[in-house]
Automatic annotation (TrEMBL):
Sequence intervals crossing the membrane: 7-27, 33-50, 57-79, 85-107, 116-134, 140-158, 167-189, 209-228, 235-256, 262-279
EamA domain sequence ranges: 6-129, 140-278
Keyword rRNA-binding: no
Keywords annotated in UniProt: Membrane, Transmembrane, Transmembrane helix
Name of the protein this chain belongs to: Amino acid metabolite efflux pump, probable
Membrane topology, record value: Multi-pass membrane protein
SUPFAM superfamilies named among the record's database cross-references: Multidrug resistance efflux transporter EmrE
UniProt keyword annotation of Acetylation present: no
Annotated compartments: Membrane
One of the Pfam families matching this protein, by short name: EamA
GO cellular component, one term: membrane
Amino acid sequence: MKPIHISLAILCAAIWGFVFVVIDWGLSEIPPLLFTALRFAVCAAFLPFIGFKPPVAWRYIIGVGISLGMLQFGLYMGMAYGMPAGLASLVNQTQAFFTVMLAALWLGDRPSVRQLAGIAVAFLGIAVIAADLPAGGTQLGLMLCVVGAMFWAVSNVLMKVSKPPQVFVMMIWMSLIPPIPLCIASYYFEGPQGFSGLLTMSPTAWFAVFYSSVIATILGFGLWGYLLKQYTASIVAPFSMLVPVFGIGFAVTLLGEELSPVKLGACGIILAGLALTLLPSRRPPVVAAAHAR
């Protein structure tokens, strides 16, 4: 990769790592369902700037809008139930493992032995984190974060099938789907006080909405989509392993989160699983030539 593209990939990972701190700030004032609705409502407001021609068939826009927009709110719910921002950034990356498994089931993409080993190693790390968390809300938060990652994986498969010309354009279009259903769900499950609280939200909370929508969603996915057009996924995808590194670093620095030796060890196990799953394999030239023949 060119140095400028490496810089963009690292910037993208930093943007997505910092968003977990931002979500933590926002959840202190905004209920999780309403926060998710606001995030995608702001994204949808950019539709007039990209035109009103859908980039793909509506079934894919609706499918991605439901899976990535509405059902991935498990991440927000998980953090609202006590999942620390740093660990949430790490657990959220299990979407890579779920994507491999779903692609095998739906698309017939057979995972390699190394990918299966990486999945097993990573979920061992998650099991260690679960065992080290206090019972109650935090364990529920971990489960909700894993559920959110599962639905992100569903959206990954839908995006792969639909093949949108530009990822960030697809993100804006799919953002039309979540706001109204999530606002209705927020009103009934979180109460009307969340909506009245919008009038007294602090600048920090509004920044959380702006950052999670404009910076993390539109700019982040726009940069990622640009890189995927320049290089193969096997070259770009490993940079996503930096997301939890940035996420944990920002959470420790800005939120004062502490990581026990057990959690640090579990983080290392999960990152090792990510490496096994995402890093491209390098076959010896002789083997590769024999395979070509």
